[in-house]
From TrEMBL:
<dbReference type="InterPro" id="IPR039785">
    <property type="entry name" value="MINY3/4"/>
</dbReference>
<feature type="domain" description="Deubiquitinating enzyme MINDY-3/4 conserved">
    <location>
        <begin position="1"/>
        <end position="159"/>
    </location>
</feature>
<keyword id="KW-0833">Ubl conjugation pathway</keyword>
<dbReference type="GO" id="GO:1990380">
    <property type="term" value="F:K48-linked deubiquitinase activity"/>
</dbReference>
<dbReference type="Pfam" id="PF13898">
    <property type="entry name" value="MINDY-3_4_CD"/>
</dbReference>
<keyword id="KW-0645">Protease</keyword>
<keyword id="KW-0378">Hydrolase</keyword>
<keyword id="KW-0788">Thiol protease</keyword>
<dbReference type="GO" id="GO:0071108">
    <property type="term" value="P:protein K48-linked deubiquitination"/>
</dbReference>
<dbReference type="InterPro" id="IPR025257">
    <property type="entry name" value="MINDY-3/4_CD"/>
</dbReference>
<protein>
    <recommendedName>
        <fullName>Ubiquitin carboxyl-terminal hydrolase MINDY</fullName>
        <ecNumber>3.4.19.12</ecNumber>
    </recommendedName>
</protein>
<comment type="function">
    <text>Hydrolase that can remove 'Lys-48'-linked conjugated ubiquitin from proteins.</text>
</comment>
<dbReference type="GO" id="GO:0004843">
    <property type="term" value="F:cysteine-type deubiquitinase activity"/>
</dbReference>
<dbReference type="GO" id="GO:0006508">
    <property type="term" value="P:proteolysis"/>
</dbReference>
<comment type="similarity">
    <text>Belongs to the MINDY deubiquitinase family. FAM188 subfamily.</text>
</comment>
Length: 159
């Protein structure tokens, strides 16, 4: 992955601003993934989330917590759909690897530390993602790459 991909994460505009519902997108290839997730975020905020606000207020009156919940819901919905409605796989980065690679193999500081978490219930996947939302939106988290890996494993390599 390029430096652009490695730096890509799910980052919202400032809370309680006119664009509080919108993800910030950099240049290049990650925009397509961010746009797909953005569509699910807007759908959740406008049609699923229970609130007393009008449609436009629903989008602009988001705080940090609501942004995280919207992102967790969007990621879980997308992974669940990729898994055919029967499973979702979430990839997270674990602690640094302390073992040395085998002869002839090169160590990757990122991909060697990915751990898979499989869920057979959408609600459990969403709760797990919500509990680990900073793994997707935190600075230096490789959030978009983790989501891409999660999509691939949810869909399965065979499919």
């Amino acid at each position: 992955f390029s430096c652009e991909w490695a730096a890509a994460r799910f980052r919202f505009h400032p809370p309680r601003s006119p664009l509080a519902y919108a993800l910030q997108a950099g240049e290049g290839g990650t925009r397509a993934i961010l746009a797909a997730v953005q569509a699910h975020i807007i759908t959740y905020l406008l049609f699923t989330r229970e609130t007393e606000c009008t449609h436009l207020e629903r989008l602009c009156q988001l705080g940090h917590r609501e942004q995280g919940q919207a992102l967790a819901t969007a990621l879980a919905e997308t992974l669940w759909a990729a898994g055919g409605g029967g499973r979702a796989v979430v990839c997270l980065v674990t602690a640094p690897v302390t073992t040395r690679p085998r002869a002839g193999c090169r160590a990757s500081s990122f991909t060697d530390r990915i751990r898979l978490f499989e869920f057979s219930e959408k609600a459990a996947a969403q709760e797990f993602i919500s509990d680990h939302i900073n793994s997707f939106k935190g600075e230096g988290s490789h959030g978009v790459i983790l989501f891409l890996y999660s999509l691939l494993f949810s869909r399965t390599l065979e499919r």
